[in-house]
Design a protein that fits this description.
Length: 238
């Protein structure tokens, strides 16, 4: 197996070092490629079984887009051909049409999906989001000053139960397209949701256990219980 972690030295905000460590431990006996900026990720030009990218600063987003725009068509073709991948945090923003700053220039994104990212730097939203994907109950933390306009629910990933979706008009979060997934949630998401993560890794043939799997599953059960009590109590107050 070939696993590519994209720009681990700069795309690692909001807990995503944890996701990198999970991948390093899970696939320690496989080929792990840590592509550093400004190298072009190998998945554009060669066979990679799984790609991962975490959150980054806004200036890093602009640098990455400058490098990747000529390869947007290749990215689209890779997804159409079944590439397995997961983007977390504002790595999602790279995939839409534009990143629109309230008081700055608009940056053209990759145009893979029909949404735009609207940035209001002084309007940050922090919340816990709980939802469903297939048979999995998943959760993550939102900490962002962006919202996603356009057809943001065209490729829905998470059906939101508690918390907000990609904008106030929808109750879905993220992108799910064949075997490729992206969400603005962090946590890190892959560690918080071990059942989903094991299923995701199974898409490219991994059949082993996750590192500390029993502990990850037990922690996920405790979080679900705690979130159920918290959100049910809020409903009762209303």
């Amino acid at each position: 197996m070939r696993i590519e972690i994209i720009y681990p030295e700069i795309a690692n905000l909001l807990g995503e070092h944890g996701s990198q460590q999970l991948l390093q431990r899970t696939f320690a006996d496989e080929e792990i490629i840590c592509t550093k900026f400004p190298d072009l990720p190998q998945f554009f030009t060669s066979k990679i079984d799984f790609i991962y990218m975490g959150a980054m600063t806004e200036s890093t987003q602009a640098l990455v887009l400058d490098l990747w725009r000529p390869y947007a068509g290749d990215f689209r073709q890779k997804i159409d051909n079944g590439l397995v991948g997961f983007f977390a945090g504002n790595a999602l923003d790279l995939l839409g049409r534009n990143i629109v700053y309230e008081e700055a220039d608009t940056i053209q994104a990759l145009g893979l999906y029909p949404f735009d990212t609207l940035c209001k730097r002084f309007d940050r939203k922090n919340e816990i989001v709980r939802g469903k994907f297939h048979e999995f109950e998943v959760m993550g933390y939102r900490s962002q000053f962006t919202t996603h306009t356009g057809d943001s629910s065209a490729f829905p990933f998470i059906e939101v139960i508690n918390g907000s979706g990609m904008n106030p008009a929808v109750k879905t979060e993220g992108v799910a397209d064949r075997n490729f997934f992206a969400t603005s949630l962090n946590g890190p998401f892959l560690i918080l949701n071990p059942e989903f993560t094991k299923w995701l890794f199974g898409l490219f043939g991994y059949r082993g256990e996750l590192p500390f799997e029993a502990d990850l599953l037990a922690a996920a059960d405790l979080r679900r219980e705690d979130l159920s009590r918290r959100f049910d109590k809020k409903k009762a107050r209303k």
